[in-house]
Amino acid sequence: MAIIVKKFGGTSLGSIELIRNIAHRIALEAGKGDALVLVVSAMAKTTDELINLAYQISEHPSRRELDMLLTAGERISMSLLSLALQEEGYSSISFTGSQSGIITDERHGNARILNVNAFRIKEELDKGKIVIVAGFQGVSQSKEITTLGRGGSDTSAVALACYLQAKKCEIYTDVDGVYTADPKIVSNAKLLPAIDYSQMLALSYNGSKVIHPRAVEFAYKYSIPVEIKSSFTFAPGTMLIQEESFEEEKNMEERHITAIAHKENLLSYIIPETEETIDLLKIWNWEIFKYLAIENQLELIIEEKYDKEIRYLLSQKEIPILKTENGIGYVTLVGLGINLDPSFLADTLKLCQPFHIKRIQHSDKTIEIMLPSSEVKDCVQILHSAFIGCEK
User: Fold this and answer.
1) What architecture (CATH level 2) is domain 3-245?
2) pLDDT grade, residue 250 (50/70/90)?
3) pTM listed for this prediction
């Protein structure tokens, strides 16, 4: 009996009607003989509403208590989906992250998975039940409830797929799969039937929202087959595959842009690189989008929504902020070997002349453009048209 793990995001579970729709589709698939494990996020906007409640009580809420609060969102989703499946005539059971055996470190708000011991899931699958798991959460070795940070449900799903030796992990979202750019910005963006793990990782690190980079890291490390697809149609989407799985191109060294990622509403802090700063980074709990160390200074680029808490933390540690800049955005070209070909840089510089470029840097699979957040969408459209839109 093959096991398939299916993860459903908050937009897929945003109402009772949508939950019933998911349950009905799962019921149609359940008769095919595969054992099903469903990982769920909180219903759309629930997490934000819970965070707002916490900040109405406390200006700087305890991260432990936030974890206790936020994990309620996924528990609501898992219970409702289990009830909906039972109404479809299927035996189901729901588990929290801790009941599922997802063991994490002690870092509240952005915990890392140390181990998975999902023996209870296996026991229920053997009884013929559909198992629903609350994503985004786990339990520390000291029995504290923890959350895995943004995109944590994706990470939960892939980690469980690894432990259960699943045939496949399917990530259901509100788009049909991975596109060459955000289809909300580029109307003629193309759906990619497949993309290799490393390029998907680059897209995720640089702003693509369809799957969290930690989930891609898990899939890459343990070779978990992952498909990203629509929760509204269940149609085939984008498979994450090994690089060598691609068919050979006619020109074996042909280089091209696979896709474009973007990120808006970022904030830059420049702080001194001191022993206090190094100690702070060891306990840092927020995602850092980019960082740069140069001449005894450290630049941290983070999402603007974290500004208040980070300023508070820096003041508590008596680390001065030397300079800040808000309204920052990034546009990132992703492709195999593009950093080795200066012609891509030349074309990028030419195409970006209308914009106020602050910085261009690269990694082994990216060309990363820093510019005002207000110019990101226009830049994505121009670069997509030039590098991807006219391809046959």
Assistant:
1) 3-Layer(aba) Sandwich (3.40)
2) very low
3) 0.91
